[in-house]
Amino acid sequence: MILYWIGALLVLLVLFPVVVYLLRGVLEAAQGIVPSVERIAAAATAGSQDLDAVPLLLTTQDQVRQTVETVADYGGSLDMIVDDA
Hints:
It contains two helices and no strands. The protein has helices at residues 2-51, 54-84.
C-alpha cells in the first residue's frame, strides 16, 4: 500500500506538471493561430471586393471593341479623303 501512495505522489509531483506544461504549450500555439486567421480573413475579404468589378469587364470589352471599330472606320474614311486630294 505504501508503494501505491509513493507511485501516486510521484505521478502527482512529476508527471502532472509535465502534462500541464505541455498543454500550456498547445494552448499558446492555438492562440497564436487566431491572428493569422484574422489576417487571412481580411485578405480574403479584400480579394472578394476586388472581384466584384469582374462583370464590368464584359462591358468594358464591348466598349473597346466599338471604339476600335469606330477608329478603324474613321481611318478608312481619312484614307479615301487623302487619296482624292
